Amino acid sequence: MFSKNRFCPKFVLMHLENYISDLLYTHDCVVVPGFGAFLTRYQTAELDKNTHTFYPPKKTVGFNIRLQENDGVLAHRIDKETKNGLKKSVAFIEKEVAVWQQHLAQNKFLSLEKLGDFSVDNLGKWQFVPSANVNFLPESFGLSAVVSKPLVNKPVKRIVPIQETKTPSTWYKYAAVAAVAVSVGGFLGFNYYNQQVSQYNLAEKQKADKMLQQRIQAATFQLNASETPVTIQIVSKSYPYHVIAGAFREEENAHKRMEELIQNGYQARLLGTNTYGLHQVAFQSFSDKSTALEFLEEIRTQVFSDAWMLIENR
User: Fold this and answer.
1) How many Å is the maximal CA-CA distance in the chain?
2) Phi, psi at 212, each rounded to 5°
3) Reported pTM
4) Which residues of 120-142 are buried (b: 16+ CB within 10 A; e: fewer)?
5) Contact 309, 263 (CB under 8 A)
6) pLDDT tens by residue, 50-81
């Protein structure tokens, strides 16, 4: 803002540019006689997709040096504010314009508060750059640019809960151990030897069989002769459909992967080594093919895109 050589302080309440900027909130054009006209232009709200910035609607100011004919709007506004009369208001405008033009001629630059900056090029032409911080649209008062971060949808990891089984009491627990032993033995004998099942999980099955045999040998059945004999029906259920989580050269890495999956809620298991000597780990094994395929699709979509399904020969 330029303040040198202002008119009589008792006559002026504000600088000339302040009266102009106030009028631009309600007028599309304010003519400054002998200098030019300030005009406003409406701009709709816009979104900058590169910076994710939303700009509210606004009215920006421009300048036209050719419009200099006095329409009386500016002088009447000053007279209304100062109560000093229309003639003194016109004289004040002429005095201010003379100061502006003199400053431009000497310094090639003039800055008007809330309006913008004028400069003079080598050819003597005026250049006007409007103030970027002023919005002359009353409806947008108090609104500023808003920067928003784009939302990123993170996939939801599906956790399969592990169902707990209650431990039976008295002699029923020994019968249950015997049933499991027979089931595992039948699975190993029937499925592996008779039907040429591949070598997956052989080592783990042998360990489980040995452990169960030890429990059976240590168990004592105390049944009275008068009691009705208990008949246990053994139902062998196989799980030939495996959703594979990975194959590892080192067995230790396969165990780590299995433990990691179990901690995340999966019923993971080791499947032994394949024909290439790799230790395979399954997210979960299923007896039904359609259920296994549904689970595989979920895993591929949400957890591990390289998961695949292994089907054992039955």
Assistant:
1) 131
2) -70, -35
3) 0.41
4) eeeeeeeebebbeebbbbeeeee
5) no
6) 776 767 788 889 999 988 888 889 999 998 88
